[in-house]
């Protein structure tokens, strides 16, 4: 059984390493290294929502939240678990009373379709935002639900 939970205390054992393993499974080159993950886990503004199966991390959502908005930093689900609505379940933990922002590679058509389904709209593009390979980012926003 897959469990989705907000890890406010960030107490899951070896969480940074488990997050890194999920990223390595999903991306050819992980967008974050272990040090970046550990630093973000220590940030009091960062929130992590975890998808666990038998205490093993199979996916996660990382976002930062302020008084009036939130920004999705990462969302990843291991390839073997994709297509099972896990990302949708993770997104259910985003605040509904705030604008939500995110960036996505313009070539990531599956993610773009998912974000559009989740009511995100394109608001801007950032030229050469990503590296390895260099690629533009699409900036997206979802209005609050209230």
Automatic annotation (TrEMBL):
GO terms for molecular function: protein-N-terminal-alanine acetyltransferase activity. Belongs to the acetyltransferase family. RimI subfamily. Keywords: Acyltransferase, Cytoplasm, Transferase. It is found in: Cytoplasm. GO terms for cellular component: cytoplasm. PROSITE patterns: GNAT. It comes from Streptococcus anginosus. Acetylates the N-terminal alanine of ribosomal protein bS18. Residues 2-145 form the N-acetyltransferase domain. The gene is rimI. This is [Ribosomal protein bS18]-alanine N-acetyltransferase. InterPro entries: AcTrfase_RimI/Ard1 (IPR006464), Acyl_CoA_acyltransferase (IPR016181), GNAT_dom (IPR000182). Its EC number is 2.3.1.266. It catalyses: N-terminal L-alanyl-[ribosomal protein bS18] + acetyl-CoA = N-terminal N(alpha)-acetyl-L-alanyl-[ribosomal protein bS18] + CoA + H(+).
């Amino acid at each position: 059984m897959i469990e989705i939970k907000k890890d406010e205390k960030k107490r899951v054992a070896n969480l940074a390493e488990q997050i890194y393993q999920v990223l390595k499974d999903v991306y050819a080159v992980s967008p974050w290294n272990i040090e970046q993950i550990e630093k973000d886990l220590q940030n009091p503004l960062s929130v992590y929502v975890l998808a666990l199966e038998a205490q093993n991390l199979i996916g996660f959502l990382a976002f930062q939240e302020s008084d009036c908005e939130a920004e999705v930093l990462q969302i990843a689900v291991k390839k073997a678990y994709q297509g099972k609505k896990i990302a949708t379940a993770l997104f259910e933990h985003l605040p509904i009373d705030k604008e939500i922002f995110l960036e996505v590679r313009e070539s990531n058509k599956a993610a773009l379709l998912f974000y559009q389904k989740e009511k995100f709209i394109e608001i801007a593009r950032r030229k050469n935002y990503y590296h390895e390979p260099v690629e533009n980012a699409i900036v997206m926003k979802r209005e609050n639900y209230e």
